């Protein structure tokens, strides 16, 4: 997943002389984006309306993070390290927010949960209040 590579690039940015591994990790994260997009779109098809709103915000934040890391990569490739680190740091902050949205989507809203289990009553997951946190137990 892109965020893991980008997080590692930020760690390498903190270590003097590790510019090349940081640049490669930014590139690795960018290379993983298309796969993440395809998987996200596949998951999106199974979301309800409420989950889709969060999914759109998650995707938009990831698009912004990807753009910032693309700018970071281009600057790093040209040897402009400071100009590469700044958008990378901003991209990591945005990717972290996107990750929090994805976590909310999965854990609080139950997206993807019990996908392969048959439920006797689909309301088991929604409960009386669809906005309330899920309790699958």
UniProtKB/TrEMBL annotation:
<keyword id="KW-1133">Transmembrane helix</keyword>
<feature type="transmembrane region" description="Helical">
    <location>
        <begin position="54"/>
        <end position="74"/>
    </location>
</feature>
<keyword id="KW-0472">Membrane</keyword>
<feature type="transmembrane region" description="Helical">
    <location>
        <begin position="25"/>
        <end position="42"/>
    </location>
</feature>
<feature type="transmembrane region" description="Helical">
    <location>
        <begin position="86"/>
        <end position="107"/>
    </location>
</feature>
<keyword id="KW-0812">Transmembrane</keyword>
<protein>
    <recommendedName>
        <fullName>DUF2231 domain-containing protein</fullName>
    </recommendedName>
</protein>
């Amino acid at each position: 997943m892109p965020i893991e590579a980008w997080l590692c690039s930020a760690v390498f940015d903190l270590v003097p002389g590790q510019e090349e591994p940081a640049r490669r990790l930014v590139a690795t994260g960018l290379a993983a984006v298309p796969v993440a997009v395809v998987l996200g779109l596949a998951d999106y098809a199974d979301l309800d309306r409420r989950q889709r709103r969060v999914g759109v915000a998650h995707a938009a934040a990831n698009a912004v993070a990807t753009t910032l890391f693309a700018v970071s990569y281009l600057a790093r490739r040209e040897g402009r390290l400071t100009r590469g680190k700044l958008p990378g740091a901003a991209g990591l902050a945005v990717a972290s927010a996107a990750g929090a949205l994805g976590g909310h989507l999965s854990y609080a809203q139950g997206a993807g949960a019990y996908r392969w289990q048959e439920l006797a009553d689909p309301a088991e997951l929604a409960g009386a209040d669809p906005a309330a946190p899920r309790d699958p137990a």
